[in-house]
Amino acid sequence: MVSEGFSFPIIKSFIPIFHEEANVLEKILRNKCDSVSNECDISVPISMATMEMIGKTALGVQFNAQYYGHHRFVENLQTAMLTWEYRISHPWYLSKTLFRLSTVKYQHDRSQKIINEFTDDIIKKKINELKQNNDDEKKPTWDSEDVSRKTKTFIEVLLGNYHNMSHEQIRDELITIMIGGQETTAIANACTIFMLAHHQDVQNKVFEELELIFSVGDPTRTPTYEDLQQMTYLERVIKETLRLFSPLPLLGRSLDEEMKIGEYLCPAGSTLLIFPLFVQTSPKYYSDPEKFNPDNFLPNACRSRHPNAFLPFGAGYKNCIGIKYAMFQIKTVVSTLVRRNIFAPSNRCPTPEHLRLMFLTTLKFVDGCHVKILPRTSIPHIIQT
Question: In the record, what terms sit under GO molecular function (predicted)?
Answer without folding.
Answer: heme binding; iron ion binding; monooxygenase activity; oxidoreductase activity, acting on paired donors, with incorporation or reduction of molecular oxygen
